[in-house]
Amino acid sequence: MVTQTNEFWLIRKQLLEDLEKENKELTEERRDCCREIGDKLRSVNSNEQRIIIKIDSENEDNYQYQQRLRNYADSKLEKRIRDDQLSKIFQQISNSDLTREITKHLEGESNNATELLESAGCTRRTILKLIERDSNMMTVENPNLTRNVFSEHLLLIEEAIDEDIVAILVNILGNEQNAEELSDGQKCSVMMTLAMLSKENVPLIVDQPEDDLDHEFISKNIIPKIVESKKTRQYILSTHNPNISALGDSETIFKLEYKGEDDSCFIESSGGFEDLLEDLLRMEGGESAFRLRMERYGFNRFSKGIRKI
After folding, report:
1. Is 102 exposed, middle or buried (0-12, 13-18, 19+ CB in 10 A)?
2. 209 contacts 222 by C-beta, under 8 angstroms
3. Domain spans of the chain?
4. What is the mean pLDDT of residues 31-52?
5. Quick count: other Cβ atoms within 10 Å of Cβ 223?
6. Taking the model in full, what pTM does it have?
7. Cβ atoms of residues 284 and 240 within 8 Å
8. Does residue 195 have a pLDDT over 90?
9. Alpha-carbon torsion (177, 178, 181, 184), positive or negative
10. Cβ neighbours for 130, distance < 8 A, ≥ 6 positions apart
11. CB-side neighbour CA atoms (13 Å) of 134
């Protein structure tokens, strides 16, 4: 029985080491992806705005560790530990260091757990509670065992892994901000730029980009990119903005009508650009959009249609 138990701990130790190794390899793969996207972003970044994507090495998503540490603390303390004190523990002490030192203390091998928790700002009373044995722990007095104290909470904390945080930063005229701090319109412009850089053999579906993007950005940034890449990629857009159809050289246009009784819509007509010319011209901004198209191609092919509407 002792031999089997010790073999279990050896296997567990190896599995935890394998998990840590795989997590590091996954981090490197994510870094490679960020570098690949960064190379593609060079073609769209400008002096006015640069998008930067990278792994945030200073911060990690340690939600799993936080929750399991909270559960352990709640099981040990009569009064709930303050969030700021809990935050200091998981920010300054890794889950493997914490579980190792508390386990050593429980088994009488070391008193480093006290010093470790003091370094994170824990009060003496909190420390004593966190490192004491309790009824939830199983103790086996056998000097031949690799471990003599078993705590489900500590085992779960030991298994917790940190997830990488991928940071999207935007430098606007020298002012660098996290994308989460941007306005809705700015966020949408960043996401559209990144989406259009994704795998070219996958169709890109966009629902009403004009809701959060202004006309100038659509005309100067989105539409030229669509025209440039649509030979190798399919774009499906729903829009009320005629500029996208007129200046984006749409291959096929569907006019949808809203069916109010069951909150659905149906295709009223479809066809090429010229087939739906009159419908498109009736849209808000339609005439100016088509005049821009005429100027681009340098002919008055659609001037009769504009005068007619």
Report:
1. buried
2. yes
3. 2-163, 184-308
4. 86
5. 19
6. 0.65
7. yes
8. no
9. positive
10. 72, 73, 76, 77, 102, 113, 117, 122
11. 18
Residue-level pLDDT at 31: 92
Give the contacts of 127 (CB within 8 A, at least 6 positions apart).
113, 114, 117, 118
- What's the CA dihedral at 141, 102, 16, 165 to 10 degrees? 160
Q: What are phi and psi of 132, to 5 degrees?
A: -90, 155
Residue with tokens 């640069």: 50
Residue with tokens 């260091």: 97
Q: Which region among 49-58, 171-180, 293-302 has the lowest average model confidence (pLDDT)?
A: 293-302
Q: Which two tokens stand for residue 160?
A: 């917790």
Give the residue among 238, 264, 265 at the shortest CA–CA distance from 253. 238
- The rounded percent of the chain whose pLDDT value lies above 90 is 10
